Amino acid sequence: MIKKILLIFIFISFLIGGFCLAQGRELEIDYPILDIPDIETPTTTKTFLPAYIEYIFTWAIIIAGLLAFFALVYGGILYLTSAGNPSKMSDAKEQVIAGFLGLIILLSSYLILKTIDPQLVILKKPTMEQAIGGIKIYSKTNCQSETEKPSLQVSSSIPKLKRILDWGGLNWGADGDYEIKSILFLNNSEELTISFFPDNEYKPEDNPIITYGKEDTNYNKGGCKTFPGGVQPRSVKLDYRLPGVYLYANSTTCGTSKIDEDKPIEVKVYQGSSATLPEFDNETKSIKFIYDDCDENNQNCKTKYAAILHQYENFMGKAMLFDQNQGKDNCKNLSENLISADGPKDIGVSSITVYLKPIESPLDETDKGVAFYEDKNHTGCRLPETEDEFYKDGRIEPDIDIDDFRLCGEDCNDKTCEDRISSMEMRGNYIALLFKHSNYKGDCEVFTKRDSYFRDNRIGQCGWLGRKDCLTSFIIKARK
User: Tell me: the pLDDT tens digits for 232-283?
Assistant: First the structure.
């Protein structure tokens, strides 16, 4: 009896513990990429793992409750059929007691979760419609669909509405089988602009029939609007403005043109770092940013993204930094290194570090920044040499090896110091990219806080038996 109770308690504890740990890490699960022709917009949106853990945990409580109920029923039947057999009656009583204890434990876990957050005990399954976004068009008013009046979810631009698509679309719009009568919006207007055009290929010089997402045709997520009568469209263009870092495959121009005409342009959006890029490994060709919380002129944004692209999974190998501002030059080809013309290019991307740039530059603060020291625990000679200086938003010039610097400030009595750097001090919010070779080449390790001894990191494990410091060049950037 004690063993049964202990097993049930351990099972519930593991579930609760796994759920709590999952809340601390925003791991992401990507929905499959849809093979939609002429794609220019995101086809996948990340869904954080805690949502799935919550869903599985809720189901586990329901299933465990059913099992406890059936255990009670089984114990009752066993008790009724064991008259005259003391041994069986004893087993039946134990079964009933175990069922009651199971229900008590389940009820207690439910009450605990409900006390923490009532939303945790509501069974909600993430749907593909919510994850992909876009719009849903209907051949009937009021966004209602019937067998004879079908609907179609549109998750990206479609250059020809009158066309049988590989993924099961129907002929819509002008000259098609079905007219668009109403539209259901699956995003908010600040995230997506939808334009319907009178001709195929949504040519930029053509005036759209109507554009949703402007001030005069605004909409809300989940809202339904009647499509204006008159001209039916032949193409529809969706321009996503989901804030984040956009990585594009099969396009060096962020979706405006293709490398291979036989393959669709694929794109993923990241708002946080990811140690792996499922189904996107070594595919990235270009990158751009969309800022968040901007004013009406798309200026003075409060959320500005920057990204470090890593060669291997788990933020290993070579790295390239991208922190360009929004604007006409936002899109960058990975064949170009923004920091150094001699730096790494086209490294292949298997993981990404995303950070936020500060709204206002912190460079005027004299006591903040990054400094490097000869010895561990931030002792010995240092770079920069004087105490009132720190590297704040700069780097050692690519043609100068860090070992050529004399780390001899006043604290070192002007003696010749050894050409090593063993620790790093960081005051304030900064991100440091430390490279093994000059020109920001070789293995790169990223730090967001001080490190008292590099020997425990890749950047401190060079030379014979890994007992030499590797740091040769670095980049320091302020972060929010």
Answer: 998 888 887 778 898 988 889 887 778 887 777 788 888 889 888 887 889 9
Whether residue 364 lies inside any domain: the answer is no
| Burial class, 398, CB count within 10 angstroms (exposed 0-12 / middle 13-18 / buried 19+) | middle
Among 60, 89, 121, identify where a domain stops: 121
**Structural domain harbouring 149:** 133-240
Rounded (10°) angle between helices 49-80 and 86-116: 150
- Amino acid type, 209: I
Which helix (H) or strand (E) segment holds residue 198: the answer is none
Backbone φ and ψ of 6, nearest 5°? -65, -40
- At 65-107, the pLDDT tens digits run 788 778 778 878 887 777 777 777 788 788 778 877 877 877 7
Q: What percent of the chain is helix, strand and coil (3-state, nearest 5)?
A: 25, 25, 50
Same domain, 345 and 389: no
Q: Which of 285, 44, 231 is nearest to 156 (CA)?
A: 44
In a domain, 363, yes or no: no
Q: Which of 369, 379, 388, 382 is nearest to 452 (CA)?
A: 379
Beta strands, E only, 144-303: 151-154, 182-185, 192-197, 210-212, 224-226, 235-240, 244-249, 266-270, 284-290
State how far the Cα of 478 lies from the Cα of 472, in Å rounded to an integer. 20
State the chain's maximal CA–CA distance in angstroms: 99
Total domains in the chain come to 4
Domain termination site, one of 208, 240, 272:
240
CA dist 79 and 95 (Å) reads 9
Cα-only R_g, the chain: 30
| DSSP character at residue 341 | T
**Do 95 and 140 share a domain, yes or no?**
no
- DSSP class of residue 189 equals T
Is residue 220 located within the same domain as residue 300? no
Q: Is residue 250 part of a domain?
A: yes
The CATH number that applies at residue 391 is: 2.60.20.10
Q: At what angle do helices 2-23 and 49-80 cross, to 10 degrees?
A: 160
Which whole-number Å values give the CA distances from 216 to 195, 211, 294, 345, in the listed order? 13, 9, 19, 44
Please state the pTM of the whole predicted model. 0.59
Look-up: residue for tokens 């199971």?
A: 102
